[in-house]
Design brief:
Blueprint: H1 5-43, E1 48-63, E2 67-80, E3 83-87, H2 99-108, E4 114-119, E5 127-128, H3 135-179
Antiparallel strand pairs: 1-2, 1-4, 2-3, 4-5
Helix pairs in contact: 1-3
Length: 180
């Protein structure tokens, strides 16, 4: 099947843009998950202060494709060097999912409960109720990030391979046209 020069250029542009998007998406996924794991590990050595739970509610996201997703939404306040801060980070790497998991977390942090808040000494507004994380979840998060990276990279390579073929085909066609 012959491809016109205009179609070849259009496909080349589309393939290049999609390949670039897949590459950027894979890099973004890796950087995001690396940052989550790094923050989780660093939080193990953060100082802790007492805080108070201000709000403890079940947050439900509804999606027509995947149904409902449940999250514990816990807001707490704490003081560092006389300054009051409010935060809502429960953990950096989520250690479970589902409605029962979310409800267990809410039960552990009822309104007005006194809690231990770990905070970043360099950025005291960054805090977490459950510092660190379970090793199994680090591997899970790393595995998910690697899977995304792999899929996006393979798709990008396949698109670049097709783009390369189109470029070579275009050069070949131009060569044949200039010979005649």
């Amino acid at each position: 099947m012959d491809i016109s020069e205009k179609d070849r250029r259009t496909r080349l542009k589309i393939g290049s843009v999609l390949g670039l998007l897949f590459t950027v998406a894979s890099l973004f996924t890796l950087v995001f998950w690396y940052a989550q794991i790094a923050d989780s590990v660093r939080s193990n050595s953060w100082p802790a202060v007492r805080g108070v739970v201000l709000s403890s509610e079940l947050h439900v996201d509804t999606d027509s494709d995947s149904g409902k997703t449940y999250y514990p939404n816990i807001i707490y306040s704490y003081h560092v060097a006389g300054q009051e801060y409010t935060a809502e980070k429960l953990q950096f790497v989520q250690d479970g999912f589902g409605k029962n998991w979310a409800l267990r977390k809410l039960d552990a942090y009822p309104v007005d409960a006194v809690v231990e808040v770990s905070y970043d000494p360099d950025l005291p507004q960054t805090a977490v109720l459950e510092p660190g994380g379970k090793l199994i979840w680090y591997f899970f998060v790393a595995g998910v990030a690697l899977a995304f990276w792999s899929v996006f990279t393979v798709l990008a390579l396949l698109l670049f391979k097709d783009v390369r073929k189109m470029v070579l085909l275009g050069k070949s066609l131009r060569g044949q046209l200039s010979d005649s």
